[in-house]
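Quick check before the chapter quiz. The format below is the same one you will see on the exam, so make sure you can read both the input and the output lines.
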Amino acid sequence: MKQTLPLLAFLIGLSGAQAQDAKSKPTTVVKDASYLLPDGRLALHGDEALAPVTDALNAKFAETHPGFKFAPVLKGSATALPALAAGATAIGFVVGEATRSDVRAFKAINKHDPLAIKIGYAGHGSRAGGRTPPAVYVHSSNPLQGLTMTQLASLFTSGSPGGDINTWSQLGVAGSWGNRRIHLYGQRDDGDFSTSLRLARLGGMPFAGHYEPLADDAAALQAVAQDPYGIAIVDWLDAKPRDGVRVIPLASDAGKPFAKPDKTDVARGAYPLTPAITLYMARPNKQLEPWIRDYLTMALSDEGQAIIARFADDATGFLPLSASDLQVEREKAKD
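Here is the expected output.
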């Protein structure tokens, strides 16, 4: 026993030294990396709303990777993929998803698709001082209980596989509402929110012929408030919606419970229109740079998720991933 104790102490000491050595050995950046600035900082492009999150994640990363310094250039989600395609950023930080056209442009230049990893959710409400994520609104007197995403697509677009929905009776609304035609409102299909939503969430079909595009979200909500038979899909709201309208709960699939864009439902990954915090990275030959893989691992770690949770009550309202979504993204990051 006397002989084994010194040996055990030696092995414990060796193990501790190896762990400390591994912790203090940062991965390095390719010297000629195009995103490396003259002063040695690494450029990160993306959405300005993510500034507090990126600052906190960068600081956490630097704890285990001393010498790494970042230069966030946060001017909007729309800048992330073009910067990544041009090699001007190591990681693109996006609220939501990159547009199909930006992904195609990236692939045309780099000959591969970007890797997209979700690290959290963005937005919950409505709440005072906070932003409500995209949602569907009806007149406050409308008895509709909820919609599936398939129904939403059949309602707002033309030619959906499930068939078009034109009257309230097709959604199970009875009584005097039943045979009334549904009036559709929203933003213009001009390449911005409505176009992205239609392509990413509504099956890519064109909007229905009776869809009425209006100047902005305020106009769409006003139209619904004045029209008992109206319904609108609205982008982010910086305040509570006007009187006379209410949010319709949504379900990702038939048979699943309806969810609202409130904190509880967003946090469990149940609200279908929740924008994610999505990181985009180049992956030539299906290989990430080692430091970028380390960054992803950190952001998806329990500590990284706790960092995101610290910003749950700021203006945008960022939330960590649900347990099931977190597992999916961790597996994707391993590939």
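If your answer matched, good. Residues 1-22 have pLDDT under 50 and may be disordered.
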